[in-house]
UniProtKB/TrEMBL annotation:
The keyword Endoplasmic reticulum does not apply. InterPro entries: DNase_TatD-rel_CS (IPR018228), Metal_Hydrolase (IPR032466), TatD-like (IPR001130), TatD/YcfH-like (IPR015991). Pfam families: TatD_DNase. This is TatD family hydrolase. NCBIfam families: YchF/TatD family DNA exonuclease (TIGR00010). PANTHER family: D-AMINOACYL-TRNA DEACYLASE. Keywords: Hydrolase, Metal-binding. One of its GO terms (molecular function) is hydrolase activity. It comes from Paenibacillus puldeungensis. Its EC number is 3.1.-.-. The keyword Metal-binding applies.
């Protein structure tokens, strides 16, 4: 069994075949999926998915690209949603210095506020980090994020950055890029990441793994990520599936299949 710890099944790319896409994931042994609601539009659609399917859970938060759109009351809205039994994390939150859609100071402020909320609620956080490694680590330290932990989703930093995040108690999640021929850094980091801190994801409909790169990604493809991780770690796919599933269940407080 597998868990896709980061997906966007509510994205418009799935409007024509969402049920079929979810069915394909189940057929590939994907027993749980965590859908990410990251702004005013996707939080409601994420909640609808989580309430419609027993095996889909939700993370809700404000994406750094949308930080400038956050208004008074939105943090209270997220806090209220975190009382829902299907909400397992606050995210994706963080910093994105690649896309120039929100000023850096606004991103950092929204990031800090959401870490503070997560600490007050005892919720793990799901972090988006693009070209902002040093600032992400600095803010995690300053805001005492080690008290709650969480996951660095689609991890793309160096081993030096990875080690700092691991030292803060975070998990590292890997997706399609570990299947790319020239993606040297994420492969090296995955090899060094302790098994008990390893998670896998798709970030669908984005970051489609080889051999389907360039096409729409979907949660069923987390099996391809598991196969690549197994090869890099030198273990069986079954072992990767078992370990990453256990890690995800424990990290996000999701009931096991037998419960």
């Amino acid at each position: 069994m597998l868990i896709d710890t980061h997906t966007h099944l509510d994205a418009p790319e799935f409007d024509d075949d969402r049920e079929e896409t979810i069915a394909r994931a189940l057929e590939q042994g994907v027993s749980r999926m965590i859908n990410i609601g990251f702004n005013r539009d996707t939080i409601p659609t994420t909640m609808k998915l989580a309430e419609s399917y027993d095996f889909i859970y939700a993370a809700v938060g404000w994406h750094p690209q949308d930080a400038i759109t956050m208004r008074e009351g939105d943090l209270d809205w997220i806090a209220q949603l975190c009382e829902h039994e299907k909400v397992v994390a606050i995210g994706e939150i963080g910093l994105d210095y690649y896309w120039d859609t929100s000023p850096k100071d606004v991103q950092q402020d929204v990031f800090r506020k959401q870490i503070g909320l997560a600490r007050s609620l005892g919720m793990p956080i799901c972090i988006h980090n693009r070209d902002a490694h040093e600032d992400v680590v600095r803010i995690l330290r300053e805001e005492k994020a080690s008290e709650i932990g969480g996951v660095l989703h689609s991890f793309s930093g160096s081993w030096e950055i990875a080690k700092m995040c691991l030292d803060l108690g975070f998990h590292l999640s890997f997706g399609g890029p570990i299947t790319f021929k020239n993606a040297k850094t994420p492969k090296e980091v995955l090899i060094k990441t302790p098994m008990d801190r390893l998670l896998i994801e798709t970030d669908s409909p984005y970051l489609t793994p080889h051999p389907y790169r360039g096409k729409r990604n979907e949660s069923a493809n987390v099996r391809l990520v598991a196969e690549a991780a197994a090869e890099l770690k030198g273990v069986s796919v079954e072992e990767i599936a078992e370990i990453t599933t256990r890690n995800a269940l424990e990290r996000f407080g999701i009931p096991s299949i037998s419960e």
